[in-house]
Description:
This protein has helices at 60-75, 90-96, 111-120, 122-125, 141-147, 172-180, 199-209, 247-257, 266-271, 277-283; strands spanning 5-8, 18-21, 23-29, 34-40, 44-49, 52-56, 80-85, 103-108, 134-138, 152-158, 182-194, 215-222, 230-237.
Amino acid sequence: xxxxxxxxxxxxxxxxxxxxxxxxxxxxxxxxxxxxxxxxxxxxxxxxxxxxxxxxxxxxxxxxxxxxxxxxxxxxxxxxxxxxxxxxxxxxxxxxxxxxxxxxxxxxxxxxxxxxxxxxxxxxxxxxxxxxxxxxxxxxxxxxxxxxxxxxxxxxxxxxxxxxxxxxxxxxxxxxxxxxxxxxxxxxxxxxxxxxxxxxxxxxxxxxxxxxxxxxxxxxxxxxxxxxxxxxxxxxxxxxxxxxxxxxxxxxxxxxxxxxxxxxxxxxxxxxxxxxxxxxxxxxx
Length: 285
Ligand code: AG3
Protein backbone atom coordinates (compact mmCIF):
# COMPACT_ATOMS: atom_id res chain seq x y z
CA UNK A 1 0.00 0.00 0.00
CA UNK A 2 2.82 2.39 0.83
CA UNK A 3 3.63 3.23 -2.80
CA UNK A 4 0.01 4.09 -3.63
CA UNK A 5 -1.53 7.52 -3.45
CA UNK A 6 -3.67 7.98 -0.34
CA UNK A 7 -6.95 9.93 -0.33
CA UNK A 8 -8.12 11.34 3.00
CA UNK A 9 -11.68 12.32 3.67
CA UNK A 10 -12.03 15.81 5.13
CA UNK A 11 -15.58 15.83 6.50
CA UNK A 12 -14.82 15.80 10.23
CA UNK A 13 -11.52 17.45 11.05
CA UNK A 14 -9.42 15.40 13.45
CA UNK A 15 -11.14 12.04 12.93
CA UNK A 16 -11.52 10.37 9.60
CA UNK A 17 -10.86 7.68 7.07
CA UNK A 18 -8.55 7.13 4.14
CA UNK A 19 -8.58 5.16 0.90
CA UNK A 20 -5.63 4.06 -1.16
CA UNK A 21 -6.14 5.02 -4.79
CA UNK A 22 -5.52 2.12 -7.12
CA UNK A 23 -6.44 4.25 -10.10
CA UNK A 24 -8.02 7.69 -10.54
CA UNK A 25 -10.77 7.42 -13.15
CA UNK A 26 -11.87 11.04 -13.14
CA UNK A 27 -10.97 14.16 -11.18
CA UNK A 28 -12.07 17.68 -12.01
CA UNK A 29 -13.96 20.71 -10.79
CA UNK A 30 -17.51 20.86 -12.10
CA UNK A 31 -19.45 24.17 -12.10
CA UNK A 32 -20.59 23.32 -8.56
CA UNK A 33 -18.07 21.10 -6.79
CA UNK A 34 -14.90 19.02 -6.89
CA UNK A 35 -15.69 15.55 -8.30
CA UNK A 36 -13.39 12.56 -7.98
CA UNK A 37 -14.04 8.94 -8.94
CA UNK A 38 -11.30 6.44 -8.14
CA UNK A 39 -10.76 2.73 -7.70
CA UNK A 40 -9.99 1.22 -4.28
CA UNK A 41 -9.05 -2.40 -3.55
CA UNK A 42 -11.55 -2.83 -0.71
CA UNK A 43 -14.57 -0.70 -1.66
CA UNK A 44 -14.43 -0.83 -5.45
CA UNK A 45 -15.09 2.45 -7.24
CA UNK A 46 -15.49 5.43 -4.93
CA UNK A 47 -17.09 8.79 -5.76
CA UNK A 48 -16.47 11.88 -3.62
CA UNK A 49 -17.69 15.47 -3.86
CA UNK A 50 -15.72 18.29 -2.21
CA UNK A 51 -13.63 15.78 -0.28
CA UNK A 52 -16.57 13.78 1.13
CA UNK A 53 -17.31 10.19 0.07
CA UNK A 54 -20.75 10.01 -1.52
CA UNK A 55 -20.90 6.42 -2.62
CA UNK A 56 -18.84 3.29 -3.17
CA UNK A 57 -19.62 0.26 -5.29
CA UNK A 58 -19.33 -2.12 -2.37
CA UNK A 59 -21.75 -0.64 0.16
CA UNK A 60 -24.03 1.67 -1.88
CA UNK A 61 -26.85 -0.90 -1.80
CA UNK A 62 -27.49 -0.32 1.91
CA UNK A 63 -28.06 3.41 1.52
CA UNK A 64 -30.04 3.24 -1.72
CA UNK A 65 -32.28 0.35 -0.65
CA UNK A 66 -33.06 2.02 2.67
CA UNK A 67 -33.91 5.39 1.16
CA UNK A 68 -36.01 4.01 -1.69
CA UNK A 69 -37.85 1.01 -0.23
CA UNK A 70 -38.75 2.23 3.27
CA UNK A 71 -40.92 5.16 2.10
CA UNK A 72 -42.29 3.36 -0.99
CA UNK A 73 -43.39 0.25 0.93
CA UNK A 74 -44.66 2.38 3.83
CA UNK A 75 -46.78 4.39 1.40
CA UNK A 76 -48.14 1.26 -0.29
CA UNK A 77 -49.50 2.92 -3.45
CA UNK A 78 -46.74 5.31 -4.48
CA UNK A 79 -47.01 6.18 -8.17
CA UNK A 80 -45.06 9.41 -8.46
CA UNK A 81 -41.55 9.72 -7.02
CA UNK A 82 -39.27 12.76 -6.80
CA UNK A 83 -35.54 12.28 -6.23
CA UNK A 84 -33.61 15.39 -5.25
CA UNK A 85 -29.87 15.01 -5.98
CA UNK A 86 -29.15 11.38 -6.73
CA UNK A 87 -26.70 12.14 -9.55
CA UNK A 88 -24.87 8.83 -9.20
CA UNK A 89 -28.03 6.98 -10.33
CA UNK A 90 -28.17 4.44 -7.48
CA UNK A 91 -31.42 5.81 -6.04
CA UNK A 92 -33.05 5.82 -9.45
CA UNK A 93 -32.09 2.16 -9.95
CA UNK A 94 -33.79 1.12 -6.69
CA UNK A 95 -36.91 3.25 -7.29
CA UNK A 96 -37.28 1.74 -10.79
CA UNK A 97 -37.62 -1.72 -9.24
CA UNK A 98 -41.12 -0.81 -8.03
CA UNK A 99 -43.54 -1.76 -10.77
CA UNK A 100 -46.38 0.28 -9.29
CA UNK A 101 -44.36 3.47 -9.77
CA UNK A 102 -45.53 5.33 -12.88
CA UNK A 103 -43.39 8.45 -12.90
CA UNK A 104 -39.95 9.39 -11.52
CA UNK A 105 -38.49 12.89 -11.67
CA UNK A 106 -34.89 13.43 -10.57
CA UNK A 107 -33.72 16.98 -9.91
CA UNK A 108 -29.92 17.17 -9.80
CA UNK A 109 -28.06 20.48 -9.73
CA UNK A 110 -24.86 19.15 -11.29
CA UNK A 111 -25.09 17.70 -14.82
CA UNK A 112 -21.45 16.61 -14.63
CA UNK A 113 -22.13 14.29 -11.70
CA UNK A 114 -24.79 12.53 -13.79
CA UNK A 115 -22.53 12.37 -16.84
CA UNK A 116 -19.40 11.03 -15.17
CA UNK A 117 -21.19 8.64 -12.82
CA UNK A 118 -23.01 7.14 -15.81
CA UNK A 119 -19.64 6.58 -17.36
CA UNK A 120 -17.56 5.44 -14.38
CA UNK A 121 -20.20 3.97 -12.01
CA UNK A 122 -22.35 2.08 -14.53
CA UNK A 123 -23.57 -0.43 -11.93
CA UNK A 124 -25.18 2.39 -9.93
CA UNK A 125 -27.65 3.45 -12.60
CA UNK A 126 -27.67 -0.04 -14.21
CA UNK A 127 -29.64 1.11 -17.26
CA UNK A 128 -32.30 2.99 -15.29
CA UNK A 129 -31.72 6.26 -17.19
CA UNK A 130 -33.41 4.48 -20.12
CA UNK A 131 -36.58 3.76 -18.09
CA UNK A 132 -39.58 5.35 -19.89
CA UNK A 133 -41.01 6.51 -16.53
CA UNK A 134 -37.95 8.67 -15.89
CA UNK A 135 -37.53 12.41 -16.32
CA UNK A 136 -34.25 14.24 -15.54
CA UNK A 137 -34.24 17.93 -14.56
CA UNK A 138 -30.95 19.79 -14.09
CA UNK A 139 -31.94 22.45 -11.58
CA UNK A 140 -31.58 23.56 -8.01
CA UNK A 141 -33.85 21.40 -5.84
CA UNK A 142 -35.15 24.33 -3.77
CA UNK A 143 -36.37 26.19 -6.87
CA UNK A 144 -37.94 23.05 -8.26
CA UNK A 145 -40.03 22.13 -5.21
CA UNK A 146 -41.20 25.73 -4.80
CA UNK A 147 -42.21 26.20 -8.41
CA UNK A 148 -43.35 22.89 -9.88
CA UNK A 149 -47.01 22.17 -10.54
CA UNK A 150 -46.28 18.44 -10.28
CA UNK A 151 -47.27 16.43 -7.20
CA UNK A 152 -45.52 13.40 -5.74
CA UNK A 153 -46.25 10.54 -3.36
CA UNK A 154 -42.67 10.14 -2.15
CA UNK A 155 -39.79 12.65 -2.13
CA UNK A 156 -36.28 11.30 -1.55
CA UNK A 157 -33.61 13.88 -0.79
CA UNK A 158 -30.42 12.07 -1.80
CA UNK A 159 -28.25 15.06 -1.06
CA UNK A 160 -24.74 15.85 0.11
CA UNK A 161 -24.08 17.14 3.62
CA UNK A 162 -25.14 20.73 4.39
CA UNK A 163 -21.85 22.21 3.14
CA UNK A 164 -21.57 23.64 -0.39
CA UNK A 165 -24.44 23.11 -2.87
CA UNK A 166 -26.21 20.70 -0.47
CA UNK A 167 -26.73 23.39 2.17
CA UNK A 168 -29.94 24.70 0.63
CA UNK A 169 -31.49 21.22 0.90
CA UNK A 170 -31.50 21.57 4.69
CA UNK A 171 -33.43 24.86 4.80
CA UNK A 172 -37.02 25.72 5.72
CA UNK A 173 -37.52 26.94 2.14
CA UNK A 174 -36.80 23.47 0.84
CA UNK A 175 -38.94 21.65 3.41
CA UNK A 176 -41.87 23.99 2.80
CA UNK A 177 -41.58 23.37 -0.95
CA UNK A 178 -41.51 19.61 -0.38
CA UNK A 179 -44.62 19.75 1.83
CA UNK A 180 -46.28 21.79 -0.93
CA UNK A 181 -45.69 19.28 -3.73
CA UNK A 182 -46.54 16.09 -1.82
CA UNK A 183 -49.89 14.40 -2.35
CA UNK A 184 -52.05 13.41 0.59
CA UNK A 185 -50.31 10.57 2.46
CA UNK A 186 -47.04 11.66 0.86
CA UNK A 187 -43.72 10.88 2.53
CA UNK A 188 -40.51 12.92 2.55
CA UNK A 189 -37.17 11.28 3.42
CA UNK A 190 -33.67 12.80 3.46
CA UNK A 191 -30.17 11.69 4.39
CA UNK A 192 -29.16 13.46 7.59
CA UNK A 193 -25.59 12.40 8.22
CA UNK A 194 -24.11 10.22 10.94
CA UNK A 195 -25.91 11.23 14.13
CA UNK A 196 -23.08 10.39 16.53
CA UNK A 197 -20.85 12.96 14.80
CA UNK A 198 -23.50 15.23 13.23
CA UNK A 199 -26.18 15.36 15.89
CA UNK A 200 -26.92 19.04 15.27
CA UNK A 201 -27.89 18.22 11.71
CA UNK A 202 -30.63 15.87 12.91
CA UNK A 203 -31.79 18.30 15.60
CA UNK A 204 -31.98 21.20 13.12
CA UNK A 205 -33.81 19.19 10.47
CA UNK A 206 -36.26 17.93 13.07
CA UNK A 207 -37.08 21.45 14.26
CA UNK A 208 -37.50 22.85 10.77
CA UNK A 209 -39.50 19.95 9.35
CA UNK A 210 -41.90 20.08 12.30
CA UNK A 211 -43.13 23.47 11.00
CA UNK A 212 -44.51 21.84 7.85
CA UNK A 213 -45.29 18.20 8.74
CA UNK A 214 -47.49 16.56 11.39
CA UNK A 215 -45.16 13.62 11.90
CA UNK A 216 -41.38 14.05 11.90
CA UNK A 217 -38.88 11.41 12.95
CA UNK A 218 -35.87 9.46 11.72
CA UNK A 219 -34.90 5.96 10.76
CA UNK A 220 -31.40 4.58 10.54
CA UNK A 221 -28.89 2.22 8.99
CA UNK A 222 -25.14 1.67 9.36
CA UNK A 223 -23.32 2.29 6.08
CA UNK A 224 -19.60 1.50 6.42
CA UNK A 225 -18.22 4.34 4.29
CA UNK A 226 -20.27 6.98 6.14
CA UNK A 227 -18.01 6.33 9.10
CA UNK A 228 -18.86 7.14 12.69
CA UNK A 229 -21.81 4.79 13.30
CA UNK A 230 -25.38 4.86 12.09
CA UNK A 231 -26.67 7.26 9.46
CA UNK A 232 -30.03 8.86 10.18
CA UNK A 233 -32.66 9.51 7.53
CA UNK A 234 -35.24 12.20 8.16
CA UNK A 235 -38.85 11.06 7.81
CA UNK A 236 -41.70 13.54 7.45
CA UNK A 237 -45.38 13.14 6.56
CA UNK A 238 -48.81 14.39 7.58
CA UNK A 239 -49.91 10.88 8.58
CA UNK A 240 -48.23 9.28 11.64
CA UNK A 241 -49.68 5.86 10.78
CA UNK A 242 -47.31 5.51 7.83
CA UNK A 243 -44.45 5.11 10.32
CA UNK A 244 -46.22 2.51 12.46
CA UNK A 245 -47.21 -0.31 10.12
CA UNK A 246 -47.60 -3.88 11.34
CA UNK A 247 -44.92 -6.30 10.17
CA UNK A 248 -47.56 -8.29 8.26
CA UNK A 249 -48.54 -5.21 6.20
CA UNK A 250 -44.98 -4.58 5.08
CA UNK A 251 -44.39 -8.29 4.53
CA UNK A 252 -47.35 -8.64 2.22
CA UNK A 253 -46.37 -5.54 0.22
CA UNK A 254 -42.79 -6.77 -0.06
CA UNK A 255 -43.85 -10.27 -1.12
CA UNK A 256 -46.28 -8.85 -3.69
CA UNK A 257 -43.47 -6.76 -5.20
CA UNK A 258 -41.46 -9.90 -5.99
CA UNK A 259 -38.32 -8.04 -4.94
CA UNK A 260 -35.29 -9.48 -3.21
CA UNK A 261 -32.86 -7.03 -1.64
CA UNK A 262 -29.38 -7.28 -0.19
CA UNK A 263 -30.03 -5.20 2.95
CA UNK A 264 -33.70 -4.25 3.15
CA UNK A 265 -36.32 -6.69 4.41
CA UNK A 266 -39.58 -6.14 6.34
CA UNK A 267 -38.01 -6.76 9.79
CA UNK A 268 -35.27 -4.21 9.01
CA UNK A 269 -38.03 -1.84 7.86
CA UNK A 270 -39.75 -1.86 11.26
CA UNK A 271 -36.54 -2.03 13.30
CA UNK A 272 -34.89 0.91 11.55
CA UNK A 273 -37.28 3.35 13.23
CA UNK A 274 -35.82 2.48 16.65
CA UNK A 275 -33.41 5.30 17.57
CA UNK A 276 -30.60 5.43 20.15
CA UNK A 277 -31.56 7.12 23.41
CA UNK A 278 -28.94 9.90 23.00
CA UNK A 279 -30.64 10.93 19.76
CA UNK A 280 -34.15 10.75 21.21
CA UNK A 281 -33.01 12.89 24.15
CA UNK A 282 -31.42 15.47 21.83
CA UNK A 283 -34.56 15.63 19.69
CA UNK A 284 -36.89 16.12 22.63
CA UNK A 285 -34.96 19.02 24.19
N1 AG3 B 1 -25.01 11.25 -0.32
C1 AG3 B 1 -24.85 11.26 1.11
C2 AG3 B 1 -23.43 11.29 1.56
C3 AG3 B 1 -23.34 11.58 3.00
C4 AG3 B 1 -21.96 11.62 3.50
N2 AG3 B 1 -21.98 12.08 4.83
C5 AG3 B 1 -21.35 11.55 5.82
N3 AG3 B 1 -20.46 10.62 5.66
N4 AG3 B 1 -21.60 11.98 7.00
C6 AG3 B 1 -24.94 9.99 -0.91
C7 AG3 B 1 -25.24 9.98 -2.36
C8 AG3 B 1 -25.51 8.58 -2.78
N5 AG3 B 1 -26.43 8.50 -3.85
